[in-house]
Specification:
By secondary structure, the protein is α/β, with parallel strands linked by helices. It has two domains: 82 residues, Ribosomal protein L30/S12 (60s Ribosomal Protein L30, Chain: A); 162 residues, Alpha/beta knot (3-Layer(aba) Sandwich). It is 36% helix and 20% strand. The protein contains ten helices and eleven strands. Strands 7-6-5-10-8-11-9 form a seven-stranded parallel sheet, sandwiched between helices. A four-stranded mixed sheet has the order 1-4-2-3. Strand 5, helix 5 and strand 6 form a beta-alpha-beta unit. The protein is elongated and about 60 Å long.
Amino acid sequence: MEPSQDQRPVDGERALLEGAVSVEAALWSRSRPFEAVYLRRDRREADDARIERFARQAGVPVYRVDAAEIDERAQGKSHGGVLAIVGPRRFVTFDDLLSGQGAPFVAMLDGVEDPHNFGQAVRALYAAGATGLVVRPRNWMSAAAVVARASAGASERLPAAVAETAHDAAEAFRARGLLIAVTDVTRAVDVYDADLTVPLFLLIGGEKRGVTRAFADAADVRLRIPYGREFRLSLGTAGAAAVLAFEVMRQRRGRK
């Protein structure tokens, strides 16, 4: 029997995930507690079986409901007939991000003001093989539906830890033997000339605020993305994250 509408509210401790990619990613990674998964009654897509299997393994109920009910609950229009009510994102410790990694690559996105940019940056980091993500306590992970869609589910798949400030994260990872790198424009080396094969913590700032001068001065290395022509405006966070992350991947594959 399906629970009634008023038995399934989304409050401050709950969030929505919309779309098959986002819901499947969170079920697969166990990144959040699940209350329920809803599939449109007439939906018969190939990924339904995976979603139902993952949900069953996690003990999560799956309900087949009318399209109108999903449309009423959803925040966007791209859910495709798949919706889940979930709890808060599960975070791990700094040591968890490093466990089992010979040369960990941990990134932090700080000062990103748009959840779509945040999600797209996380998507690039995940695709390039970053081993972990660091976020502040109040971050775009709370905008679960938008970030999960923008990241193609990567925000749910990539292990994440919390730090009060970028400085706190940098000091913790420096103590654990990681090189502290930051994107900057002054006294910086081209990303293609830096050695990024070592254990690495990379801070990427948002488009407007960037990173603080104090943090840049304390970093072990400052990285600059070279351009192919004169262009005074820097890349956005998502573009910069993609360039940096895939250069880390390229160098490490070359070293292997």
